[in-house]
Amino acid sequence: MDSIIFDVDGTLWNSTEVVAKAWNNYLQKEEHMNITFTADQLKALFGKPLAEIAALIFPEHPVDEQSRLIDGCCEAEHALLHITGAPLYEDLEKALQILSAKYPLYIVSNSQCGYIELFLEKNGFGKYFRGHLCNGDTGLDKGSNIRQIADQNGLKSPVYIGDTMGDFEACRKAGVPFILAEYGFGKVPEPDMRISKPMDLITLFC
Fold it and tell me: CA-to-CA distance for 87 and 163, rounded, in angstroms?
């Protein structure tokens, strides 16, 4: 193993409470829609590409309207996260400090443009990561983005840390081992490895 690629939601932080509040406020006050999301509902959606999430939560709307509504949700989400941030998982920064001294670290997410940058800026974590890609940047699925960031940076033997079956399937497509963050949002029956907290990565790799 020569490098580590991370997911964001359910792996590095849990923004679902903040995002639910932002989406509800926007949809109810700006769009006058009688709709309410909970953090648990968002946990089941996070990790999917944004267009897929929009189709699931606005099925009665045409595609262009789904896109407009989810874009509005994301703008509201970014604005609130810039103010409040979101809870990080246990001892995350300590783990990143140790890992980044030994390995190049990257992020690949199915998020919208600007979300990874927001995460890095809000937490001061840019110093720990060498690069990142997301669906919003490239329009590609997560497996393709994992493969692309590995190829672009000459990563010969990366591993990916994520928390959903979608992450597992993306790793299989990219030909990269998958480590399940069991504290995250999903369940994966047969990952290559498991961790119950970020500091478990130190035990595995340092």
Answer: 16
Which residues on neighbouring strands pair with residue 105, listed in sequence order? 4
Distance CA 2, CA 140 (A): 24
Q: Phi then psi for 105, rounded to 5 degrees?
A: -110, 145
Residue 102: φ, ψ to 5°: -115, -30
Model pLDDT for residues 53-109, shown as the tens digit of each residue: 999 999 999 999 999 999 999 999 999 999 999 999 999 999 999 999 999 999 999
- The reply to whether 113 and 185 lie within a common domain is yes
Quick one: 29 and 99 in the same domain? no
Angle at 158 between CA 118 and CA 139, to 5 degrees: 50
Provide the CATH number for the domain around residue 139.
Answer: 3.40.50.1000
> Which pTM does this prediction carry?
0.95
Distance of CA 186 to the CA centre of its chain: 12
* Parent domain of 138: 3-14+87-205
